[in-house]
Amino acid sequence: MNRDGVPYDAIVIGAGLAGLYALHRLRGMGCRTVVLEAASDVGGVWYWNRYPGARCDVESLQYSYSFDTDLEQEWQWTERYAAQPEILRYIEHVAERFDLRRDIHFSTRVVSAIFNEQQSTWTVVTVAGSAFTAQHCIMATGALSVPRLPAIAGIEDFRGEVHHTGRWPKRAPDFAGKRVGVIGTGSSGIQVIPQIARQAAHLTVFQRTANFSIPAWNRLLSSEDQAAFKASYREHRARAREVGTLYEFSDRGALQVSATEREREYARRWEKGGVNFVHAFNDLLVSKPANDTIADFVRARIRSIVKDAAVADSLCPDDHPLGTKRICVDTGYYETYNRTNVRLINLKKTPIDHFHATGVRVAGEDLPIDSLVCATGYDALSGAVLAIDIRGRAGIRLRDKWASGPRTLLGIMTAGFPNLFIITGAGSPSVLVNMIVGIEHHVQWIADCIAHLRARQLATIDASFDAEDRWVEHVNQAAARTLLPLANSWFLGANIPGKPRVFMPYAAKIGVYRRECQDVVDRGYEGFVFTEASHAGS
Ligand code: FAD
Ligand code: NAP
C-alpha cells in the first residue's frame, strides 16, 4: 500500500529484466516508483525457468543490459550461451548494484488494475487485497510468463510428480532411476530432454509437432573473446539497436546461388551454430521455395544424426516453414534419440488415449511414468496482461476490448487505457528480436513520455482509436509479407484453444520500429491524446 497515502508516480508490475530497468530508469528521473512481483525475488523468466539445460540462445555478451557501460564491462560471462543460474546471478547483481530490491514487493501477485477518471490514477490490487495507487501503470509482466499445462484426458488422475519447465522448483527434482515423460518439443523441451535423458532410467518424449533445431556449439568464453567484444561494445550495441542481434545477415537470395553454394553456406553456418543459421539468405522468411532449401538441409542433418530411420522421420518437421515457429537451439538434442533409454512417441501417429494414476496409455499401450515434465509453453504476449482484470476509461475491460486479439498503438499503449504502458507487448517486435534490446527501448520511450507529461503538467496520455487501428493494420501487413503466419505457432496464439488467431509481434527490424516510435514523438506524440491536469476526468 502507498506509504503516507500519496499516490506513486508509477507502479511497475513485474521484476524481470524489464521491470528492473524500468524501476532504475524512473527512479533516476525522480519518479516515486514501486514494483510488484509475484515471485519471491528478481529475475522473471530466469527466476522461474530453473530446468536443467535452460540457457539463452542469444549470445551472453549480447543478451545483457547496455544502459550502463561500467556494468557491461565489469560483468564476466563464462559461456557463449549462459545457463540459467549465471543469468539469474547477473540479474541479482544488477538488483544489488543499483539497490533495486528496496522498492520491490515480492510474493505480490497483481489481480486487478482500475483507472480512476476523476483522479487520473491507477489503483492496482494484489491477490492479498492490498491496493497501490499511481499516476502511471507499467506492465512489465513478460511475454512468456504464463505457463500452460496440457489439457490431456486423465492428466489430473496422474499421481507422480508433474513439473512445468516455466515453474521449475528451486530444489531440483531428482530423476535418477526414474521413468520420466516429457511433453513438448519447443525450445524448452529441446533444452531439457538431453539433460533428463542423462539422469533418468528411462525417458519418453511426447512430440506433437516436430521442430527445427540448430546446434548451439556452446563453449566457454575465453577472456580474450570477451575483451575483444567488449573493446567495441558501443558499436555492437548501436548495431543491435538496428538489427536486434548481431547475426551475419546476407544480401543474397537462396535461389540466386547454385545448389552447391547454398549447401556450402548452410553447412558453414551449421558448424558455427545458433540462430545465425536462419540468416543464411535474405529471402528465407518470405519465399517458400527458398525456405524449402534450408528446411531440406536440416531434415538431411537430422537423418544423418539419428540412427533409427523411423525415429528420424518423426523428428523431421514437415508442416511449417523453418523459422515460422521460433527456431530452437540445442546441445545434443537429436543425438539423444540414439540412446537406448529414450523413446519418442509421435503424437500425430499415436495420440495419447489418457493418463492414469501411474502413467499414460498411448494407442492401447500402457507406459509407466514416475515423473512428468510439461514443456508445453505459454499463453504468450497477451497472456500475462489479460490475466489481470484491467479496466480503463468508463470501466471498459481490457479483456473485452481485446476479445478478438490485442490492439495497441506501437505495442506500447492501448486506446481507452490512459497512462497504462506495456513493455514488449503485442504490436512491437518483442519476441522476434533480442528481447533486452526491445526492453531497453520501451523503457526509454516510456520514461521519456512520462518526463514529457511531467514537464507540461499533463495528467494523462492515451492512444487514439484511429491511430491504433492504423497501427494494428500496419502490424498485420508486416506479418502478411512473411511466411510467419503459416505455422500454428504461439506467435499467433494457436497454442491456446479459443485464443484469437492474430499474429501478435511486429515483424519489422527493430531499427525500423525504433524510427517509427521516434517519428511519433518528433511529431508531438502523433496519434496520442493528452489531458491537462485540470481537465482530468472531464
Ligand atoms: P519476464 O522475465 O517474464 O518477467 C515478468 C515478471 O512479471 C515475472 O517475474 C512475473 O512473475 C511477473 N508477473 C507477471 N504477472 C504478474 C502479476 N499479475 N503480478 C505480479 N507479477 C507478475 N529472449 C531472448 O531475447 N533471448 C533468449 O535467449 C531468451 N531465452 C529465453 C528462455 C526461456 C526459457 C524463456 C521462457 C524465455 C526466453 N527469452 C529469451 C524471452 C524472455 O521472455 C525475455 O528475454 C526476458 O527475460 C523477458 O523479461 P521481462 O522482464 O519482460 O519478462
Ligand atoms: P513452445 O515453443 O510453445 O513449445 C511447447 C511445446 O509443447 C510444443 O512442442 C507443443 O506442441 C507442445 N504441446 C503443447 N500442448 C501440448 C499438448 N496438449 N499435447 C502435446 N504437446 C503439446 O514453448 P517453449 O518450448 O516453452 O518455448 C516458448 C518460447 O520461449 C520459445 O519459443 C522461445 O522464444 C523461448 N525460449 C527460449 C529458450 C532458449 O533457447 N533461450 C528456451 C526456452 C524457451 P505444438 O507445437 O504442436 O503446439
Write the layout of secondary structure elements.
Elements: E1 8-13, H1 17-28, E2 33-36, H2 45-48, H3 69-74, H4 84-97, E3 104-105, E4 110-116, E5 121-126, E6 131-139, E7 161-164, E8 179-183, H5 187-199, E9 202-207, E10 213-215, H6 223-231, H7 233-243, H8 259-272, H9 288-305, H10 309-315, E11 328-330, H11 333-336, E12 342-346, E13 352-356, E14 359-362, E15 365-368, E16 371-374, H12 383-386, E17 389-391, H13 398-401, E18 420-422, H14 435-455, E19 458-463, H15 465-480, H16 510-522, E20 528-532
Helix pairs in contact: 1-14, 7-16, 9-10
The structure holds flavin-adenine dinucleotide and NADP nicotinamide-adenine-dinucleotide phosphate (NAP).
NADP nicotinamide-adenine-dinucleotide phosphate binds at residues 56-57, 144, 150, 152, 165, 183-189, 191, 206, 208-209, 326, 329, 347, 375-378, 431, 490, 495.
Structure description:
Strand 1, helix 1 and strand 2 (33-36) form a beta-alpha-beta unit. It is globular and about 75 Å long. The chain has 538 residues and is of the alpha/beta class. The chain has three domains: 8-146 and 379-535, 3-Layer(bba) Sandwich (FAD/NAD(P)-binding domain); 155-245 and 304-374, 3-Layer(bba) Sandwich (FAD/NAD(P)-binding domain), CATH 3.50.50.60; 247-303, no CATH class. The strands form five sheets. Strands 1, 2, 3, 4, 5, 6, 17 and 18 form an eight-stranded mixed beta sheet that branches. It has a five-stranded parallel beta sheet with strand order 7-16-8-9-12, with helices on one face. Helix 7 (233-243) crosses helix 16. The protein has helices spanning 17-28, 45-48, 69-74, 84-97, 187-199, 223-231, 233-243, 259-272, 288-305, 309-315, 333-336, 383-386, 398-401, 435-455, 465-480, 510-522, and strands at 8-13, 33-36, 104-105, 110-116, 121-126, 131-139, 161-164, 179-183, 202-207, 213-215, 328-330, 342-346, 352-356, 359-362, 365-368, 371-374, 389-391, 420-422, 458-463, 528-532.
